[in-house]
Design brief:
This protein is an alpha+beta fold and 323 residues long. Strand 3 and strand 4 form a beta hairpin. The longest helix is centred in the first third of the chain and has 13 residues.
Length: 323
C-alpha cells in the first residue's frame, strides 16, 4: 500500500488559532419531496427510530440513544439541506460562536435564543459561505426513552450520527470558514478535492468535497462494530436498495463504508471504525491520493457510482427553512 504525501503548504490553514467550541454534529435536517417514502425508508430499512413528529416534520434518532434527533425530514417541493446542527457545551459558547460568525460577515438567520426542537436548547442559525443554514446549539435536554424501548442499541441499527460530507465549488473558501471561524481542524486531504475536518477526536465530523455545485454528498451513521455494519448493509440490499459504493474500507479515516441512496436520492452511509486522533499536537495532515488502494483498502467495494455523491444543486441556499 502506498503512503500518503505530506501536506501542501499552500493549502488553507489546518487548524484554528483557538480550540474549537464545536463538539459534534447534532443532526441533519433534509427537505424531501416525498416525506412519507423517505421516513418509511429510514424507519423500516435503515434502522433509525421515529421519535417525534410535529408540523409535518419527522425527527429520527437511534434506539437506546439519549440524543433527541439525528435526522430531521420535512416535506418540501425540491430536495434540499434544511439545516446542519452543531453542538457546543454551553450558552456562553453559543454566544461566542455567534460573535465569531458575525465578525466573519456570515449572515445570521436567527439571533441566539431558545430553540423549538426536540430537547429544546439554546442556539442560533446562520448561512455559511455556500448559503447553507447552519445551527449552533447547547443545553439540549436528553431524550427520554418511551415505554417499552430498550436503552440498548438495537441489532444492526445505527448508534450515532458519524459525520456529514458537504459539496462545495469553493473548497478553499469553505475550508477557511470552518477552520478559522468555527475552529475545526484539518485531519487529512484527498488530493485537492476533499478535506476532512474534526472537532473532537474522531477523524472527521464534517468533510468538504469539491463539486460543480453546492449539494449534500452524504450523511454517515455509526454502527457499533464490523458485524453490525455488515448485517445492516445486507439488510438494506435485501430490501431492494443497490449499493452506490461498498462495502469497503477507506484510506482517510480508515473507516468501513457502505453507501446507498434513499428515496429522495440523498446518499446515506453505514460506517464503523473511524480513526481517533488522540494526540492533537503530534498530528499532521496527510494528502491521500485518489487510487484504488487508498480509497478502498480492502479492494472489495467495486466501482463507485459518482453521480449520487455529486447530487442535485441545493435549492435552499440563502433561504432558511420555515422550521
Amino acid at each position: 500500500m502506498t503512503s500518503p504525501a505530506t501536506r501542501d503548504p499552500d493549502r488553507p490553514p489546518s487548524r484554528s488559532t483557538s480550540p474549537s467550541l464545536v463538539r459534534s454534529v447534532r443532526y441533519v435536517g433534509l427537505g424531501v419531496p416525498d416525506a412519507r417514502a423517505s421516513a418509511g425508508f429510514y424507519e423500516h430499512v435503515w434502522g433509525l427510530v421515529r421519535d417525534s413528529e410535529s408540523d409535518g416534520v419527522v425527527h429520527f434518532t437511534a434506539a437506546g440513544s439519549g440524543v433527541p434527533c439525528m435526522l430531521r425530514l420535512r416535506q418540501s417541493d425540491s430536495p434540499r439541506v434544511d439545516v446542519v446542527s452543531l453542538a457546543v457545551d454551553s450558552r456562553a459558547d453559543v454566544d461566542e460562536v455567534a460573535a465569531a460568525v458575525a465578525s466573519a460577515g456570515a449572515p445570521l438567520v436567527s439571533e441566539p435564543g431558545p430553540l423549538a426542537m426536540p430537547g429544546d436548547g439554546y442556539g442560533f442559525r446562520f448561512f455559511d459561505p455556500d448559503g447553507r443554514t447552519i445551527e449552533v446549539a447547547a443545553e439540549v435536554a436528553p431524550r427520554e426513552f418511551p415505554p417499552g424501548e430498550s436503552s440498548e442499541v438495537g441489532p444492526a441499527a445505527p448508534q450515532a450520527l458519524s459525520h456529514v460530507v458537504l459539496n462545495t465549488p469553493e473548497l478553499d473558501r469553505a475550508t477557511r470558514f470552518f477552520v478559522e471561524v468555527l475552529g475545526f481542524r484539518v485531519s487529512d486531504y484527498l488530493e485537492d478535492f476533499m478535506v476532512f475536518l474534526r472537532c473532537g477526536q474522531a477523524h472527521h465530523a464534517i468533510a468538504l468535497a469539491r463539486a460543480p455545485h453546492v449539494s449534500l454528498n452524504h450523511v454517515a451513521y455509526e454502527m457499533s462494530d464490523i458485524d453490525q455494519y455488515m448485517y445492516a448493509t445486507g439488510r438494506t440490499i435485501r430490501a431492494g436498495y443497490d449499493l452506490a459504493w461498498g462495502p469497503g474500507r477507506h484510506g482517510p479515516g480508515d473507516n468501513a463504508f457502505s453507501y446507498f441512496e434513499d428515496p429522495s436520492r440523498f446518499v446515506c452511509e453505514y460506517t464503523t471504525g473511524l480513526t481517533l486522533i488522540v494526540d492533537e499536537e503530534a498530528h499532521r495532515p496527510s494528502v491521500f491520493r485518489s487510487l484504488p488502494e487508498e480509497s478502498d483498502r480492502w479492494g472489495t467495494a467495486g466501482p463507485r457510482r459518482p453521480e449520487p455523491f455529486v447530487g442535485v444543486p441545493d435549492c435552499g441556499l440563502f433561504v432558511a427553512p420555515p422550521l
